[in-house]
Amino acid sequence: MAMDTMAVELPDLSTHEPRPIAEETAEEKYERLLRRARSEDLSEISGIGCLYQSGVDRLGRPVVVFIGKWFPIGDIDLDKAMLYLIKLLEPIVRGDYVIAYFHTLASSANHPPFSWLKEVYTVLPYKYKKNLKAFYIVHPTFWTKMMTWWFTTFMAPAIKAKVHSLPGVEYLYSVMARDQLEVPAFVTEYDMTINGLHYFQPDTSST
């Protein structure tokens, strides 16, 4: 006697495709980087001494100093450099702050790639841009002027009006007292070379 053939219905595999992994949001990425910044060893970057807080300006706002010459692009891990930037700035950017970037005697070996600058600007939350009240570039060159114009025009128009190029350290003393600004000796030595000894006058505005 012939047995009836039983039809076996196979599941429709097309309806069980793996769900695509949700793309990480900007906020999630920053929080992940912040956790790494707080837990990883960043002494390789902190030991260079190129980024630090140096006192406050005349309005009581923290001053963050960046020394371009001490930022050797070819010898450091840029991923860790970003983590150190986040670790240093996170407690500072909760309120108003200013940045003083010294391009003194910097060369192409100290110029960060544009792709890295773009990534940093994209990763950092809105509070970093909102609470930044001034970005001073001391001893600018043609490269810094062109890069600043391009970056603030096409990538970061929100901070364009906050960027100021200054020919010497002395110009900073109108917004911060001398004893609040700590910079390497080569910066002031270069300043005197290009501006003359008479350029440095006693700071009487803080008395």
Which key terms come to mind for this protein?
single chain; 207 residues; alpha/beta; Phosphatidylinositol Transfer Protein Sec14p; 5-stranded mixed sheet; 7 helices; CRAL-TRIO_dom; CRAL-TRIO_dom_sf; Protein GDAP2-like
Rg, rounded, reads 25 Å
Strand order of the largest sheet: 1-2-3-4-5
Major β-sheet annotation: 5 strands, mixed
Report how far apart the termini are: 114 Å
Class derived from helix and strand content: alpha/beta
In CATH, what is the homologous superfamily?
Answer: CRAL-TRIO lipid binding domain
CATH class: Alpha Beta
Number of helices: 7
| Succession of helices and strands | HHEEHEHHEHEH
DSSP strand count: 5
Number of domains: 1
How much of the sequence is in beta strands? 5-15%
The CATH architecture assignment turns out to be 3-Layer(aba) Sandwich
CATH topology: Phosphatidylinositol Transfer Protein Sec14p
Kindly state the mean pLDDT as a whole number?
Answer: 87
Low-confidence stretches: none
In percent, how helical is the residue content? 25-40%
So what's the overall shape? Answer: globular
Pfam families: CRAL_TRIO_2
Protein name: Protein GDAP2-like
Organism: Papilio xuthus (Asian swallowtail butterfly)
Domain CRAL-TRIO: 38-195
Describe the structure.
- It holds the Pfam family CRAL_TRIO_2.
- This is Protein GDAP2-like.
- Residues 38-195 form the CRAL-TRIO domain.
- It comes from Papilio xuthus (Asian swallowtail butterfly).
- There is one protein chain.
- The protein is α/β, with parallel strands linked by helices.
- The chain has one domain: Phosphatidylinositol Transfer Protein Sec14p.
- Helices cover 34% and strands 14% of the residues.
- The chain has helices at 26-39, 43-46, 78-89, 114-123, 126-131, 142-155, 185-195, and strands at residues 51-56, 62-67, 97-102, 132-138, 163-166.
- A 5-stranded mixed β-sheet has the order 1-2-3-4-5.
- Helix 1 crosses helix 3 (78-89).
- The relative contact order is 0.13.
